[in-house]
Amino acid sequence: MSNLKLSQLLKVVVITLLAGVGSGGLSLLVGTTKLDHLFEIQKPKAESAKTSLGREMSADAESITPAKDQMNEVPKPFQGTIIYQVKLKANEKVIALTFDDGPDPKNTVQILEILKKNNIKATFFMLGQMVKSFPQVAKQVAADGHVIGNHTWHHWYRHMDAATAANEINHTADIIYKTTGVKTTLFRPPGGFLNNGLANYAKNQNYAVMMWSEESGDAKRPSPQVPTLVKNVLNNAKPGAIVLMHDGGGNRSRTVQALPQIINALKAQGYRFVTIIQLLEIQAQEKNLVTAASPVVTNHEHPNHQLNHQ
After folding, report:
1. Which residues are catalytic?
2. Residue-level pLDDT at 272
3. What's this model's pTM, rounded to 2 decimal places?
4. Rg value, the chain, Cα
């Protein structure tokens, strides 16, 4: 007779003998798990394996260990500058996809799945308050090998004094590092505003202030339909382009729907996808090219500065 059957038989015998003592016996009958422990009864292997797998999956979902001291550092020529795009040779068909306002537990996760399926690395400009709210999603972005940039804590547009601007950027940098292990020197000002104190502070701290050369338009109100989002990106695609999209700040389901179409169409045109860091490194290696740094301009002087940018 197997140990399992013998243990079960002993348990039945004991319960039967004790059942006559009244409520104590009934109490013991209800609490049979204590007897399981007493006789060291093991669950069937299949059931135990299933339970163990569930615990492992839950643990994985709750604790992705970040890679410590990962540095997203831009080449020195670009530190402390404002960059709209990288100027590359016409045959250097590389493009950078960027996503703002996350991490988001729905949109970002779906975008990560699409990028992984296509073996693409992108750049995510994160809000400090969103990293605080959804740390596991932020960790997953880093674990998947994407580049992380600083997008301030609150996404404020208003003018800030030096102390407030410093807090917005430093507080965000701190939580990004504590959560993901990533130190970044990439900064994108909310809404593309360059004259409210944020960009000046970032430049003084040797951040590369990253703007964009084209956008899907997914932050406009009302949000364009999916075909329009795709068309907006494709119509302005060029070597060294920086594409602005969003994985947070609202319902980005249309961005998620448009992304595979954008990727497939750009691939068909011969483009390959790189991060902002890789894009800057490519230009740093190119010789006799005009610098990509742009002077500070007011919002009305550059079409990419949107007042309705979320």
Report:
1. 100, 246
2. 97
3. 0.74
4. 27
